[in-house]
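Researcher: Please predict.
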Amino acid sequence: MLLFTVPASGGERPAAHPVELPAPETAARLERCLAVSGFDVTRRDTPGVEIRIFASRGEEVRRLLVSPSSPLASVVEWGPDAGGGHAPGTPADLRACIDRGGAPTEVLAGEKFVVCLRTRREGREIRFSGLLVGAEGTIVSTAHDLDRVEAVSVRLRDGRTVSGRIGRRDPLRDLSRIDLPEPVPGFPLEGRVRDRLTPDEPVYSLGCADGGAVRLREGRVGENPRTSGGMPLWEVRMETIPGSSGGPAFDAGGNLAGLVKGRFRGTKDQGYLIPVGTILEFLGTAKRGDR
């Protein structure tokens, strides 16, 4: 990962970068990202005020200041007045570091199979995410909000936007199959799935945010599976952002652990995953061209 390569010129004021995460989570992601890049990292906390991060790799030194701007947001500063003469890089470098947060490379490898989906119904725009699977140009995603919808706009990871046809919806499982007009390689399901998760193990979701950017969110598996309409769900302690429904969640080894169904109403960090077993059952019965 290219990380923090642009030095600050003498006399520059510190650069400030707003982040839509609480300060402790922002600092933790920066720490993990720097550590994965080979830095020795230390931090110093002033409770409720600021977090200073110092990282070194040989002669390279990085100093950052993370401050809360609200209970759910923070600001990262770097530059001479933030504690050192080296800047961590451009805002894009910083954003990539925070978004990925030092996640395992096996998880990040799944990003190329994530698609951003958009459609309209009754004048309302609907945005959600999906996962390319197999080799035929098949997308599996959620089904809620897709009643009386025939087609969706699909943004692939190479930047192209193509039309997708909703082949089948299963409201009970909350799953849909969307077919592309051309073969596109997808995530290889064979031997790359985890249908049994353990409480408190880490999981990582990849979903689309506003603007079509894929964002990574890290979470933990809850104590007990849940059910909705008689169907099993994994409860996860994970921020679930608008547009991420239908996006994949992986375990630390990059195995598919489920699809993001949504979040518990009134919360931001209590989400639910549709298990892999439910997804495989659906794909086994939802053949290409089905209605």
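Model: The mean pLDDT is 83.
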